[in-house]
# Entry
Amino acid sequence: MYSQINPALTPAPNTVYLPTLLPAIEGMLRRGVTVERICAVFQRSLADIRAPLVRVPMLMSRRFWDLAMEHSADPGIGLALGMDLLSRQPNGLSYLFDAESSLKRGFDYLVRYSAQFQGHFRAEVVFRADEVQVRLHDVGSLKAPPAVVDYVMAGLCALVRRKMLSCGHPGSPVRHVSFAHACVADPSRYVSALHTSVSWGQPWHALHFERGLFVRDLTRRDAALVQRLQALVDDIDLRSRPSLLAEVCDQIAQDLCNGPTLEAFCNRRHMTRRTARRRLQAQGGQYSDLLDEYRRYRAGDLLQGSSLNLIEVTDLLGYRDLSSFSRAFGRWYGSSPGAWREGLTKTAGGVRSVQVHS
# Structure
């Protein structure tokens, strides 16, 4: 087995490149979500949301998917919106993928740039004796809920099908898709959307390819075009600088267990609290609200996705004691943390390995 990266050695991303969410945002607008609700999620105008080179804190991505789930009442909404991900909003990375001569070369760029564009995930290409797996590792400071995973995986399948079609190879070269989470919607819906067999409760999220097809040159490589597109993708990272709001969210994510404060942020930035509050307010945030929201999402992630006891979770969230955490959790979820976790276990019944064939 050959792996191109070790995702554990890189720091957790805490922002999302907003243009990758734009197809989902447009999809929810078509489904009747008001412009005002979308703008409230991202704390910016619709024109600013549609602008290029915008990065937003990861908690805004979580807000958006909460809204999508609430409005649609559809557990498979990420899958539905993901089918439009690349067909409606091509970006520099998708153009680069299309321009390369093979799937392997195209996915080399996904490995390099996935965290820059998707935030939640780092990609890894693993060569095995009989297949190649393109794995997505959830390494964000906040975890990706199933809707986000469905959205990204559906978009990748659409990207691969588009490349194959442009090369004169109709059909999907993806021979299987595996998800680490449990199935959240009708299994046949995934098979129909992804055009391949699907399984859940696996060790990782992955696209599976036949090895020979993955490495084979499908078209002639235009080195000059690839070089120009790669420069364009690199330029996105250089020009999409983080806002003060994103920097504050980074500080909260990194220092959460120590009880982050606005004062500590200002001291580090050599900025007065008055200036920081004014600039944060202009960008749609207040420090105490951002800290509370980040703790709410992180608490859910830890209780659902780890075996940590409540004292350990309390410490990681930066609370002084369990009673303080329990009061906050009751305000967020209307339940004690222990009862909430127990309810999740009963509802899920454990994540089981399930496979559905096309």
Summary: The domain at 244-348 is CATH 1.10.10.60 (Arc Repressor Mutant, subunit A). The chain has two domains: 2-240, 244-348. The chain is about 55% helix and 10% strand. The longest strand covers residues 131-138.
